[in-house]
Specification:
Elements (H helix, E strand, L loop, with lengths): L1 H25 L10 H15 L8 H25 L3 H9 L15 H15 L6 H13 L6 H29 L2 H16 L4 H6 L5 H6 L3 H11 L7 H25 L8 H23 L4 H14 L9 H13 L10 H15 L5 H17 L6 H15 L1 H30 L31 H15 L15 E7 L4 E7 H8 L6 E3 H8 L3 H12 L6 E4 L10 E4 L9 E3 L1
Parallel strand pairs: 2-6
Antiparallel strand pairs: 1-2, 3-5, 4-5
């Protein structure tokens, strides 16, 4: 027995020293160091050894009783006197100080004072004053924690008094309102108070509840519940602000995730897939949340603003290093050009898609950059006859103009006007040739007259055309001189195309090439073999431009010319000749 007592006393002395040190730390005694790892492990080991042995060496009950006694003594000698010295809110702050150390105070402390102070705070909030709700929550936690997992203590010592006080409070209010107000005014006041008790005081908790609050409703697409939340909080001043903030956060997270997915999926050929495809998913996302704004939130301006601010965040992110302005311009190009969406959508569907594009443009911060990308792609659609429908081109520009003004679309509209006038010029040019019999071209020749200020600038060179082309150009200049004397005509061959008849040994093949490539090939009508230097001198091209042209005609898929020596690099010592043995299964090829 003596041995057993000595083990208990030795262990308790270690624990007692640890408890004394803990009390000093809680009371913030100056220069009291925290527990070091060795001390913590010693305490843990001591308690473990005393409380986990089999009888008769199990001291858990004795340790529990002794520790409880120390705890009660500490509360009576240190904590309760400190609380009694305070009054009002200061008393409550002392009560909840140090968190868990105050959980078991209520057994030895009269609760009427702190309950009365809590009720005073609740009354202040009911009258519209701001109170420290965190303090109120911490005080109630003391009551809840005092029940060792049960709410009996809370219900007996707090809730019962709260319900009694609330009944008394509203009984007095009702009596006074009845004397001072008409029946309608009385009902308005009663409605406001009920609303305040049921919604306002718990608004944050209801809305931000992790499992069933606004975030969860948005995540699970609970539109009926979101609409109900809107109706409940709409009448409350600033009641919708936290809902709109969570709506904005939710959209931002979803949109940013889509952009991240598009970036991860992007390749070097982003323009044909991941980049513009991301904007289709953003259009779908915008459609989805516009339904929320319209149906759940009754088109309230606060939610329109939240939607706009959220989309502005991720609509201006890059995808694989490509700006959002360029991606949206490419998306428009894919819709409008032949072979794109324009041939797959009915007119009404296409118009609806164009309207959605404009809605996304609202969120792009650099709209001028978008305009430049759009104009360059529009120019290629028009010049290469890839625009699916002039009506839809003009329809989209009209939508741009309504949104951003006439200056934004003036150059784009000018390009469309130029294309209309160019068709008239071509008709008149054909008539001019029929009247002037001396102007025999020997080929079909089409010129598109463009206004310099409307179109993107392109790299041009002072190309010496072969004689076949010179005759065509001179004929058009003669025609144009009959139409105006105030405009100077400058020929730009950089975007021109030609269709040549390549007469090879096995068959004649129609070859579609650029104007520059055609100029090179036509030189071989008069000779079968030319050196690099001879071609350079006859065409007046730079070395870099000529090397690129000759490489495309002799080193790639369609070897129209044979290069000597045979290699994939172009040198100024190379020679070239027409490849009469060239053939292809197709009768028409594009080099």
């Amino acid at each position: 027995m003596a041995k057993k007592d000595s083990v208990l006393e030795a262990g308790w002395s270690v624990m007692e020293a640890g408890v004394a040190k803990l009390q000093k730390i809680l009371e913030e005694v100056p220069d009291e160091p925290p527990f070091d790892p060795v001390q913590r492990m010693q305490l843990y080991t001591t308690v473990h050894n005393l409380c986990t042995q089999k009888p008769p060496n199990d001291y858990s009950q004795q340790i529990y009783d002794r520790y409880g006694g120390v705890y009660v003594d500490y509360n009576k000698q240190t904590v309760l006197p400190a609380i009694r010295e305070k009054h009002g809110e200061y008393m409550l702050r002392e009560l909840v100080r140090d968190g868990p150390t105050r959980k078991f105070l209520l057994d030895g402390y009269p609760t009427s004072s702190n309950i009365l102070t809590v009720f005073i705070l609740i009354h202040k909030e009911r009258e519209g004053e701001q109170i420290d709700r965190a303090l109120l929550k911490n005080v109630i936690d003391v009551y809840c924690g005092n029940g060792m997992g049960e709410l009996v203590k809370y219900e007996e010592d707090f809730e019962s008094f709260l319900l009694e006080d609330s009944a008394s409070y509203y009984s007095r209010k009702a009596s006074r309102w009845n004397q001072e107000n008409s029946c309608p005014d009385y009902m308005i006041k009663a409605e406001e108070k009920v609303q305040n008790e049921l919604l306002v005081v718990v608004a944050k908790q209801l809305i931000e509840n992790e499992h069933s609050g606004c975030r969860a409703l948005l995540r699970d697409d609970k539109m009926d519940d979101l609409a109900r939340m809107y109706r409940l909080y709409h009448p409350i001043p600033q009641g919708l602000d936290p809902v709109a903030d969570l709506f904005k956060q939710h959209i931002t997270v979803e949109g940013s995730a889509l952009i991240k997915q598009a970036t991860e999926a992007a390749t070097d050929k982003w323009t044909e897939g991941a980049g513009p495809g991301a904007y289709q998913t953003l259009i779908d996302l915008h459609d989805k949340f516009m339904v929320y704004v319209d149906e759940c939130f009754q088109k309230h301006s606060l939610f329109h603003k939240a939607l706009k601010e959220a989309f502005e965040v991720f609509c201006n992110k890059t995808v694989a290093g490509v700006s959002s302005a360029e991606i949206l311009a490419t998306y428009c190009d894919n819709i409008l050009k032949t072979g794109g969406g324009i041939e797959k959508l009915e007119n009404e569907d296409l118009e609806l898609t164009l309207e959605k594009v404009v809605k996304l443009l609202v969120y792009i911060s650099d709209k001028d950059l978008f305009a430049e990308f759009f104009r360059k792609k529009q120019a290629r659609r028009l010049l290469f006859d890839r625009n699916g429908n002039d009506y839809h081109e003009r329809s989209l520009l009209t939508k741009f103009k309504e949104l951003l003004g006439a200056q934004f679309t003036s150059k784009m509209e000018g390009m469309l006007t130029d294309m209309t006038l160019a068709k008239e010029h071509q008709t008149n040019f054909v008539e001019f040739l029929s009247v002037n019999k001396t102007k025999k071209l020997g080929m079909d020749f089409t010129v598109t007259v463009l206004t310099t200020g409307f179109w993107p600038s392109y790299k041009t060179t002072d190309l010496n055309l072969p004689i076949e082309m010179v005759n065509c150009v001179e004929a058009f200049k003669a025609y144009y001189g009959t139409k105006t004397n105030s405009r100077r005509l400058f020929m730009d061959y950089s975007l021109g195309t030609c269709q040549l008849a390549g007469k090879f040994d096995k068959k004649t093949i129609e070859i579609v090439v650029t104007t520059y490539q055609a100029a090179v090939l036509l030189l071989f009508n008069n000779t079968e073999r030319l050196s690099y230097t001879e071609i350079l001198e006859q065409l007046n091209l730079g070395h870099e431009d000529l090397a690129r042209l000759l490489h495309s005609l002799s080193c790639l898929k369609y070897k129209i010319l044979i290069k000597e020596p045979m290699s994939r690099n172009i040198s100024n010592t190379d020679t070239f000749e027409f490849n009469s043995k060239f053939t292809d299964k197709m009768r028409r090829i594009r080099v």
